[in-house]
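Our working data are protein records whose layout never changes between entries. Getting from the letters to the tokens is the skill we practise here. To make this concrete, we reproduce a full record directly below:
***
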Amino acid sequence: VGIIDPPREEAISAVRQCSAAGIRVKMITGDHAITAAAIAEHMRIGDSPRALTGAELELMDDAQLAECVGKVDIFARTSPEHKLRLVQALQGRGEVVAMTGDGVNDAPALKRADVGIAMGIKGTEAAKEAAEMVLADDNFASIASAVEEGRTVYDNIRKSILFILPTNGGEALTILAAVALGRMLPVTAAQILWVNMITAVTLALALAFEPTETDVMRRSPRDPREPILTGFMIWRVVFVSMLMVCATFGLFLWARMDGADIETARTIAVNTLVIAEVFYLLNTRNLLAPSLTLHGLAGNRYIGIAIAAVLIFQLLFTYAPFMQYFFHTRAIDADSWLRIMVAGVVILAIVELEKAVLRRRRGW
């Protein structure tokens, strides 16, 4: 009589996903080496069918084990001590280690791993207590899904930062430019507060609902020591801040030279700043990938809702008498709106060009 307990199809697919995402999957089991090698081959774990046994691990010192653990992906006939040593050896190589287990004998390794993952259904209480996470469905595919979700959340945090900092930088630098050039302020304090209020609760919030980017599980893992504000992000913040200053201050000066009064020029400046943020929001939806695609323009319905809300607010800000009274704004003509929209489109195009240059340099 032959009995087989084949791996789940979703687990095999999840192993492939992890490999594509730069996550190296290793099998550490108490089963016989032949059994372990057969299961690993079925699940496409590792490049070599060779399985290292616990007896062979016993003969290795820490230096030998550290070298071996980088080459071998299948470990059979292992004891709790072997599992713990393997986790420590991987960490000694600078790896971030996630360990799964369900038994009491897995508890030491689960506790030592960077991320200990216990089985929620078949796992013992000792394993659950030692682990940081518990899989409610005992399904390896859930780990791959968690990695994808985690990368998406991290991406969206970075996108929010890349949106908020340049927009705030553009506002601050516009004021500084006016002071440095001895000009009247293009926007008042109340108008700055208005811009921050409507963009924070609409445009910035919409980025929290961004869907997963198509390449998120094809990227290599990031360095855990990498700061969230990288050199690339600092460059983007400064670059976009300067673009917004040029657009806002430039159209303000243009309006003044055309003979517009200070209230009308400031109304143009505030609308330029907001419209620039609207167009830059489309850029920010993808950190480096092009945004001028169907997915980039229509992949998040909350973006459309946020933009529509902002435009309605700005029309009220510009034309509603009570808003004109509180914020000292004036109605502006179609030519002014055309200049504002052109400025927004130019910012969108320049940032997309910058992303294309960066993609080419990185070999995308």
